Amino acid sequence: MFRAAVRLSVSGARSLTRPQLGLTAPLAQRCYAHGGKLESDEEFDARWVTYFNKADIDAWELRKGMNTLIGYDLVPEPKILEAALRACRRLNDLASAIRILEAVKDKSGPHKKIYPYLIQELRPTLDELGISTPEELGMD
Amino acid sequence: MLHLTTGRVGCLLSKQAVVALTSSGARMSSHGHHEVSDSVDMSQPMYWDRLDTPLPDRPWKDVLDSTDKSLKQKEKGPWTALSKEEKIALYRLKFNHTYPEMKRPSHEWKTVIGGMFIFFGITGLVVFWQCHYVYPPQPHTFGEEWQAKQIQRMLDMRINPIEGFSAQWDYKNKQWK
């Protein structure tokens, strides 16, 4: 859903002007790079959630996954971030969890409403795992 | 020999990493891997602060003393038991700069603009010296009197009388239109 609203590249400029958080048009997200069929937003999300939900994920996979995800032209959905934060918990890595929150805030760029929305959606997970946001720790 | 060649940091990424490493070397955080003073061992995983790479290849501080180790042990338990200071300490063990610190504005532009103006000034001095010492004297045809006579002659010859030079001169009242 966020991909529709917050496409950060120039071609999506028309949807950037109004950050409507309720947009649900499932745009085809991934392109035909290998000649296959288009992947929908839901499939993309599901793929990433599965990636981070791997029970024995290791630190390298977490770093690789996170760095790749941040490299995309989108802000990840809360459910992907939740899976990533839980992966941090399995790896006993609080610092990376906070770093992930900082990274998605930076990823939202000029759209100031995205990050508070993400935190609101992630609040149960943050409370459950005991992750403080960078704002709570005074790191901003 | 390898260290000599690795000293030549060509790409921006390694330059940033070297900056991160050398700036940290000035402070007391301990990195066991490399010699900050001369060159960086590029065959080891490196740390860098980049906005688009939130989790670099290695933690910032990987030579942990006993307080750090005990904090790391505590990290294995529930994070709700950690105080704010401990959480901040854990973050600072793993990362050097926070995102706002990475994005802080630098004062480099003042150096750039200042340097530009200095070069303009030096160029101006060079040009001035050149005007004074290098250029030959002006041709005599540039003098005031000569120019006045020249214009009068052009008007007498009716140069461009329709749209151009003489068209601007009012012959009856002997002045420019």
UniProtKB/TrEMBL annotation, chain A:
Keyword Transit peptide: yes
One cellular component (GO) term of this entry: respiratory chain complex IV
One Pfam match: COX5A
Subunit and interaction comment: Component of the cytochrome c oxidase (complex IV, CIV), a multisubunit enzyme composed of a catalytic core of 3 subunits and several supernumerary subunits. The complex exists as a monomer or a dimer and forms supercomplexes (SCs) in the inner mitochondrial membrane with ubiquinol-cytochrome c oxidoreductase (cytochrome b-c1 complex, complex III, CIII).
Topology within the bilayer: Peripheral membrane protein
Family: Belongs to the cytochrome c oxidase subunit 5A family.
Cited InterPro entries: Cyt_c_oxidase_su5A/6, Cyt_c_oxidase_su5A/6_sf
UniProt-recorded name of the protein: Cytochrome c oxidase subunit 5A, mitochondrial
A Gene Ontology biological process term: mitochondrial electron transport, cytochrome c to oxygen
Pathway assigned in UniProt: Energy metabolism; oxidative phosphorylation
Known role: Component of the cytochrome c oxidase, the last enzyme in the mitochondrial electron transport chain which drives oxidative phosphorylation. The respiratory chain contains 3 multisubunit complexes succinate dehydrogenase (complex II, CII), ubiquinol-cytochrome c oxidoreductase (cytochrome b-c1 complex, complex III, CIII) and cytochrome c oxidase (complex IV, CIV), that cooperate to transfer electrons derived from NADH and succinate to molecular oxygen, creating an electrochemical gradient over the inner membrane that drives transmembrane transport and the ATP synthase.
UniProt keyword list: Acetylation, Heme, Iron, Membrane, Metal-binding, Mitochondrion, Mitochondrion inner membrane, Phosphoprotein, Transit peptide, Ubl conjugation
GO molecular function: metal ion binding
Principal location class: mitochondrion
Transmembrane segments: none
Source organism of the structure: Oncorhynchus kisutch (Coho salmon)
Lineage: Eukaryota, Metazoa, Chordata, Craniata, Vertebrata
Cellular localization per UniProt: Mitochondrion inner membrane
From TrEMBL, chain B:
Membrane-crossing segments per the record: 111-129
Biological process terms in GO annotation: mitochondrial electron transport, cytochrome c to oxygen
Matching Pfam families: COX4
InterPro entries in UniProt: Cyt_c_oxidase_su4, Cyt_c_oxidase_su4_fam, Cyt_c_oxidase_su4_sf
Keyword Magnesium included in the entry's annotation: no
Keywords: Membrane, Mitochondrion, Mitochondrion inner membrane, Transmembrane, Transmembrane helix
Pathway it works in: Energy metabolism; oxidative phosphorylation
Keyword Repeat: no
Topological relation to the membrane, as annotated: Single-pass membrane protein
Subcellular compartments: Mitochondrion inner membrane
GO CC field: mitochondrial inner membrane; respiratory chain complex IV
Complex and partners: Component of the cytochrome c oxidase (complex IV, CIV), a multisubunit enzyme composed of 14 subunits. The complex is composed of a catalytic core of 3 subunits MT-CO1, MT-CO2 and MT-CO3, encoded in the mitochondrial DNA, and 11 supernumerary subunits COX4I, COX5A, COX5B, COX6A, COX6B, COX6C, COX7A, COX7B, COX7C, COX8 and NDUFA4, which are encoded in the nuclear genome.
PANTHER family in alphabetical order: CYTOCHROME C OXIDASE SUBUNIT 4, CYTOCHROME C OXIDASE SUBUNIT IV
Annotated family: Belongs to the cytochrome c oxidase IV family.
Role noted for this protein: Component of the cytochrome c oxidase, the last enzyme in the mitochondrial electron transport chain which drives oxidative phosphorylation.
Protein name per Swiss-Prot or TrEMBL: Cytochrome c oxidase subunit 4
Gene: LOC109907975
